[in-house]
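U., I forgot to send this yesterday:
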Amino acid sequence: DLPAAHMIQGSLASRNNDILGGIHHLQKAIELDPNESRPHHWLGIEYNKTGYLEKARQQLQIAVDLEPDHANANGYLGFVLMLLGDFERARFHYAEQSRLGNMSLNALVHVDILTGDLHKARQTAAETDNIDTETRKRLALLINAIEDPSKTSQYLEYIKQPGLNEWLITDELFQLGLYA
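Result:
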């Protein structure tokens, strides 16, 4: 299956930091089978890595259009939309990712924070069943720190514990204005 071979080659190239090679193979896979969602999804991820956010959005949207229940494509599309400042649509796709069983509730809370709706962020963090206790506590501390900057030290002390997701913490520090 030639399209699948190009998808595999694209994935391998990307893993070896050959982003352009990955893009080439994924484009070839799409050319050979434009109705397969996976190469669109992966190409969207590759475009995101290179900073081509609009191209990433286009490819991820195609992946979701072809396979609406593709949890990861919905999540990546939400991420790219958030980077593009389209928070309403980002929240929709993160909610879809969550509905499909792939945890993106941190992202939902982050979108609410970025839009300035701290009440909604607090509500999402408190009412969602599949956020663990530690994550719930960290998000509450983050929201408190945004509402009252004098509480930032409590959040910063909490995130020093080992095992926390560095990407999420970096994103949260950016939201607090502590990471550029």
